[in-house]
């Protein structure tokens, strides 16, 4: 006569059914492995295998040889990727433009169907669920995507904590650390005591983090806020800050730094150490020292996540935080790499 099941095994199976039926999973998601069930719940591997097999027979799971167990149910097969970028990404040489061009190039190499949309601030549009969405500075789309429990990739921004973050992959830059690095480079010179900062737009989280990082080492540094990330507002702020003696200038992006350099050449001819941020093409063209974003890593990790979502080989969401590095250029700043 077969031996009856223990309360522990019955309870475990019920827990797994509750887990499958929760909002955590969608059809096609990878389920717990037998080895994980064995170690996490303290049962034998044979018991874990038997329970998983029963769940498949009862329609809760689909077993795929050599791959594992997946949540059963109808799935939307993804055809490709939709790139939703704020319209500023159309401007050549901008952060968004460089990121978009790099991702599109790699997706084409991988023969992945790609469609690109440029959105104005607050603009909304219908999102095709057959395409994996990638978002850059389009927060108006994020809520609609996560509400219907669709995975997406958020670029250069962290998702809000909570349930919605379980459907959002993200890749961000450690902007605070980058600001600290810029301050450390000025400290290495030994002659800089009163640097100033040209920040980006008032509510831009990247600018805020970069400024806070710099201020952690130079708490008394004056902050001049540009209305945008572009050249003209930076030039205007340069005309204001150079009304007084300036030791050095940290600019929260390279376009602002290029504006300061241009103002110096046009008006003061002074030797003023300057550091930008991003390693945009303009910094190399004008030989400006900068805090560099690891662009290749950013682009390659984005494409890896996209491929993983299209092939359904990812389950839990992924959040990467990339660290910047200094690039020493030109005669505006004269320290050397160790």
From TrEMBL:
Domain of life: Bacteria
One GO MF term attached to the UniProt entry: DNA-binding transcription factor activity
Protein name according to UniProt: Regulatory protein GntR HTH
Keyword NADP attached: no
CDD domains: PBP1_LacI_sugar_binding-like
SUPFAM superfamilies the UniProt entry points to: Periplasmic binding protein-like I, Winged helix' DNA-binding domain
Keywords: DNA-binding, Transcription, Transcription regulation
Source organism (scientific name): Sediminispirochaeta smaragdinae (strain DSM 11293 / JCM 15392 / SEBR 4228)
Record Gene3D superfamilies: 3.40.50.2300, Winged helix-like DNA-binding domain superfamily/Winged helix DNA-binding domain
Residue span, HTH gntR-type domain: 6-74
């Amino acid at each position: 006569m077969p031996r009856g099941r223990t309360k522990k095994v019955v309870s475990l199976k019920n827990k797994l059914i509750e887990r499958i039926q929760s909002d955590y999973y969608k059809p096609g998601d990878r389920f717990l492995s037998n080895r994980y069930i064995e170690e996490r719940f303290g049962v034998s591997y044979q018991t874990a295998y038997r329970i998983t097999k029963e769940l498949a027979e009862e329609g809760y799971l689909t077993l795929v040889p050599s791959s594992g167990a997946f949540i059963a149910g109808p799935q939307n097969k993804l055809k490709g990727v939709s790139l939703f970028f704020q319209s500023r990404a159309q401007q050549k040489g901008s952060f968004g433009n460089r990121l978009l061009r790099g991702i599109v190039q790699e997706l084409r190499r991988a023969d992945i169907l790609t469609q690109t949309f440029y959105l104005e601030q607050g603009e909304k549009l219908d999102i095709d669920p057959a395409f994996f969405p990638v978002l850059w500075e389009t927060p108006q789309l994020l809520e609609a995507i996560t509400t219907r429990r669709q995975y997406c990739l958020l670029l250069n921004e962290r998702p809000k904590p909570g349930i919605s973050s379980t459907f959002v992959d993200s890749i961000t830059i450690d902007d605070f650390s980058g600001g600290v690095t810029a301050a450390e480079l000025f400290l290495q010179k030994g002659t800089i005591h009163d640097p100033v900062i040209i920040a980006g737009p008032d509510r831009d989280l990247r600018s805020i983090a970069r400024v806070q990082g710099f201020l952690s080492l130079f708490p008394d540094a004056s902050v001049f806020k540009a209305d945008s990330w572009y050249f003209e507002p930076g030039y205007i702020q340069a005309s204001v800050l150079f009304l007084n003696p300036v030791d050095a200038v940290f600019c929260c992006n390279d376009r602002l730094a290029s504006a300061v350099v241009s103002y110096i050449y046009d008006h003061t001819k002074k030797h003023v150490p300057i550091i930008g941020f991003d390693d945009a093409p303009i910094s190399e063209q004008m030989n400006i020292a900068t805090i560099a974003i690891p662009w290749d890593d950013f682009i390659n990790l984005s494409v890896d996540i996209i491929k993983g979502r299209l092939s359904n080989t990812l389950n839990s969401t992924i959040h990467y935080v990339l660290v910047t590095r200094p690039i020493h250029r030109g005669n505006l700043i004269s320290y050397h790499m160790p």
